[in-house]
Amino acid sequence: MAGRMLKFIRGKGQQPSAERQKLQNELFAFRKTVQHGFPHRASALAWDPLLRLCALGTATGALKVYGRPGVELYGQHTNPDSAVTHIQFIPGSGQLISLCDDNSLHLWEINEKSLVELKTHVFEGKNKKISALCVESSGKNLLLGTEGGNIYTLDCNTFTINEDVIYQDVVMQNCPEDFKVNPGAVEAVCEHPKVPSRILIGYNRGLVVLWDRATATPTHTIVCNQQLESLCWNDEGEHFTSSHNDGSYVTWEVASTASDRPLKEPVTPYGPYPCKSITKILNRTSVDGEEVTIYAGGMPRSPYSDKFTVTVQQGEKHVAFDFTSRVIDFFTTTPVPPDGVPLQEVRPATPAQIQVQTVNQVAAALVVLVEEELVVIDLCDDKWRPLRLPYLVSVHACAVTTATLVDNVADNVYDNIVAAGNKQTENVYSESPWPISGGIVEGCEPAERQVLLTGHEDGSVRFWDVTGVVMTPLYKYTTATLFSGEEIGENNDSQNDEEEWPPFRRIGTFDPYSDDPRLAVKRVLLCPLSGMLTIGGAAGHIVIASLKTSPSTAEVKSIPVNIVSDRDGFVWKGHDQLTLRSGALTFPAGYQASAVGQLSPPAAVTALAAQWEWGVVCAGTAHGLALLDALRVAPVAHKCTLNPHDHSGAGDTPISRRKSFKKSLRESFRRLRKGRSQRRQTTTSASPTSPTQPAKRVAEKISETDAEVKPIERAVEARPADDGFGSMVRCLYFARTFLINTQTTTPTLWAGTNNGTVYAFTIHVPNTNKRKEDPVTCQLAKEIQLKHRAPVIGITVLDGAAVPLPDPLEVERGVSPLPESGAHRVVITSEEQFKVFTLPALKPHNKYKLTAHEGARVRRTAFAWFECGASGAERHREWCLLCLTNLGDCLVLSPDLRRQLNAAAVRKEDINGISSLCFSKRGEALYLHSSSELQRITLSATKVTIAQCHVLLSPWAVTLRGASDDAPLTNGEHREEPSVAEAAHDLTAASGDITVDSVRDHAAEASELNINLQNSQVNTSSMVVKTTTRTNVNENSVDGVTTTTTTTTTTNNSITENILEHSREEGVITRIETGTVTVPAGTDPKLILEMFDRQRAPLAVPVPPAES
C-alpha cells in the first residue's frame, strides 16, 4: 500500500508550479475564431451602397457583414430560434436594422472592428406583423408596413415608435369601393428618388398609392388587376414598375397629374400560359446606357414550376439564370471605384444620391443570394459570366465525406496547385474586381501555407487555401473519370439539350446529387513537400496521383489485392467494385492518377497512410489492411484482421440486431445478478450478529484507505472479443524507429483495429539505386492486445526529446531537424485511454485513463506544437497531444500525459461537427458546425486566426453614432461568460456603457467619487441597467400607439465586465451594450438611471488624412 501511495503522490498529486502555470497561460488558450464557407440556412440579404458592405442573415439568428476579402464581422441574435427575415442598412452610417420572424427589430452597429447589437424593439399587437421595411434617406426613421395595412415610423435613434402613423383608412379615401373593405397587407414601401417626403405604398391585393407625407394626402392612386408582389422606381421618379403573382410586370407613370393608367401594357415575359409570380423586380441602366430589367420567378407553372430563376434582360439579350436552390434576394452594385470605397464628405440627402443615381444607377454586377450559395454575375462582361467567389464559397456543393488539414505546404506545390486550378476555370469566370469592396484589411498574410482538403460524395477532392481569414478555392480533382459503368454519368451538360425558350443558363456550383455512392471519398492525404495525393474510396479503391504541370496521356495501372485470400469460407454480400477504364487516358495539367489500388472485398477504406520517402501506401478496411508499392505499382503484403471463425463479412451489412440484442440482454441480466449478489454480501457483512464482524471492519478500514489513495474511476466494461466490427482497421502509421533492437532504427508500419489490437510490421526498403528493381518486403514483428479491447484511434512514435518523429521528406528537405537521439516511445491512443510504451521492449511506461476518470471517449487525436516568448531563438516551444472527445471537449496533454487545457469546443449534440473535426500542427482545428459552414478554433494562445479589419466611416456618419467607452469586442474574441444571474437572456434594448468618470461628472458631491481606480482595495459594486421597450398598437385607440418602457436595475457585489452573449451553436460571441456600470458602493441608483437615459457622446472614428 505504501508503494501505491508513493506512486500516487509522485504521479497525480503534484500541482504545476507558479512558473509552469504562467507558461501554460502563455501557451494554451481556447478560442473560436472565424467561420469559413456559406452560412447555414441563409434567409436575408442587404447592401450598403456607400460603404459597399453586404449583410447576410440566417434562420438561426446569425448576422454577418462582409466587405473586401478579409473584412468579416459576426453577430448573433439572443434568440437563436428566431430567423432573420429582413435586413436594412442605414446607408453610410455603419448601422443596420434586422427584422426577425418573432416581429422583433434589432439595431446593430459596426463599431470599427466588431458588430454590436445596440437596441431591440418588439412590435406587438393584433395584425401588426411587419411585412415591409423602408429606411428613410435621412437615416432618422424606419418605415414599417404591417399586415394590418398601417405604416408606422420607428425612430432609429431612440428605437421607439413615434406618433407619425399612416393609417390604412386615410390612405384609402380616394380608392375604389371594393378596396375599402380590405386591400391586404403592405407588400412594399419605397421612397421617391427625388422627393423623400413622398412614398410609394403597395398593398397585397393590387392597390398602389403614392403618398405625400408632408400634406398627408395621396397624389396618385393606382389599382392593379393582379396581386402585388413588389415595386421598383424607374428613371428619376417619373415611373415605377410593379410585379405580380401571375408572372407579369407593369410600368406606371406618376410624373403628370393623377393617373391610373399604365405607361405600357402588362408584360408577361414567359406567357401566355399560367406563370409563377415575379417576387422581385429591379430596373437599372447598363454601363452602355441601355435599360436592364432584372426579376426573380415568372416561369411557366406547368413545365418549369421547379425552377429557381433570376432573369436579366438588356435589349435583345435575355438570359434566365437557373439556380439549384431557392432564390432569397438579390441586388445590383455600381462599378468598383479605384480605392474600393469612396468616402462621402457630405451626407446624401435623397435616395437618388445615396444610390448614386439610384433607380437609374449603373448596374455593374448582380449579387444573388440563394438558399445554398451566393452568386455574383458580371453585367459588364459580354457573356454575363459569374465572378470567382473570394469567400462565402459553398463547401457543401457536394456533400462533404472527409476533411484533412495540411500545414506548411511547399511553395512549389502550392503554386502548381493554384496554376492547375486557374486552368480549370479558364474562361469560366469574369476577371472584373470584386464588387463588395468595403472595409480595410489590417496586417499581412502568414508565410506558411495551410491547405484544407475536402473529400466529397461524388468522388471529388477540393483544395482550399485556409491560411488566413478567407477560405479560397484552389483546385478540384475528380476521380469519377477514372471509372466506367452504367451508374456513373459521363458528365454531359444537359443544358445543351434543353429548349431555347425560356433561355436557361445553369449557374452556381451547388449540386448535391451523386451518380454512384461507391465514388464517395472516405480518406484523403496530401504530402505537403512532394505534392503526392492519395485517396481512399467507398468501394475499396485507392487512387495515387502526382502533380504535373503539363497535360499527358497514359494508362492507369491497377493494383488488385485480395485481403481475405486465406479465408476460404468468406462471402462478400456488399456492393461490387468500380470498373477502372482501360486504355490510355488523357489528363489535363494538375493531378494525374498513376495507379489505382483495388482491395477485395471492396469495402470502404477506413484508414490510409502514405510514406513518400519509401514510396509505399497502406490502406485499411473492415477486413484488414494492404501495403502497396507505389513506385513499382505492385502489392507488397496484406493482413486479414477478421476473426478466423467469422465468415459474415464485416462491413457489407449492418450488425445483426437479433444477435446483438440477445447478447446485450444476456449481459444485462448477468450484471443485474452480479449487483444483487454484491449488495447481499454487503448487507450480510454489516449485520451486528455476524461472527466475522471484527475482521470485516478491518477490511473496511483498509478499503477506505485505498479509496483515498486511488482516484475514483468509472467501471469500464470489457468489450467482447467477437464484436462484428472488431476487425476494422482504425489507424495506420509509418515510422523509422527501434522495433527490433536498441542499436538500429527500422522502417515500420503500425496498425490499430477496432477491438484494441495493434500490429507492428517491419518493412525492408531497397536502396535508392535498386528501388525500382528490388521488391519491398514486409513482415509482422509484434502484436499488442489492449486490455479493454477499445478501438485504437491513433499511434505516434516520440523521439528521445518526446517530440513526434518528422513527417516523410521533412528531414531530407531541411524542414525539420533529425530526431533527437535516445530511447523512442510509442503513444497508443484508444477510445478510453492514452498509453505510452517503451521501444523496442513495448513495456508500459505511463497512461492516462480518460473514460475511467471523465466518462468521455476519444474521437480524434493529433500532435501539435505551441510556442511563446519573444521572436528569435528565445521562443519556447512545446509539442503536445491534442484530443477531441465524444462530448465535444478538446484536451491538450503534454507528452508525459499531463493535462494542460480542457475546453468545450463543439456541442456534444453536434455529431457531424465532432466527426468532421481535423487538427493542424499549430494547435488549430476546423470542423463542420453545419452542413455548409466550417468553424475555426484554436487551442494556442499565440496562433490565432481572426479578422484584422475595420470599417472607415465618413465624418458626417459620426452624428448618427454614439460613443462607447470600452474597446470594441473584436470578432471571435473569447472572454469569460457571465453567470446566469449577471446576464439574463431576456434583455431587448440597451443604451451604452456608463463609467465611473461619467458618474463623477454628474454627481452632486464629487468628493465622494474622487477615488483612485488603480487601487484594488476600493469597495465597488456593479449595476446592470436593462431597458425593455415594447409597443402595443390598439386599433380602437385614437392615438393608435401605446409605448411601455420598463427599466430594471440589478446590483451585484463584485466587479462585472460588459455582458456577453455566447452562442455555442454558432460559435459567435457578441457584445451587447447593456449599460453595465462599475461605481463605488452606495451610489444612488437614480443617478445611474439618469445617466442611462442621457444621449451618448459621438463616437470618435478614424478620419482619413487630408490630401496635401
From TrEMBL:
Domain Lethal giant larvae homologue: residue ranges: 267-384
Residue ranges with Low complexity bias: 680-695
Residue ranges of WD repeats: 77-118, 452-466
Keywords: Exocytosis, Repeat, WD repeat
Biased composition regions of type Basic and acidic residues, renumbered to the chain: 697-706
Chain spans, region Disordered: 642-706
SUPFAM superfamilies: WD40 repeat-like
Keyword Repeat annotated: yes
Family assignment from sequence similarity: Belongs to the WD repeat L(2)GL family.
Protein name, UniProt field: Lethal(2) giant larvae protein
The organism of origin for this protein: Bicyclus anynana
Organism lineage: Eukaryota, Metazoa, Ecdysozoa, Arthropoda, Hexapoda
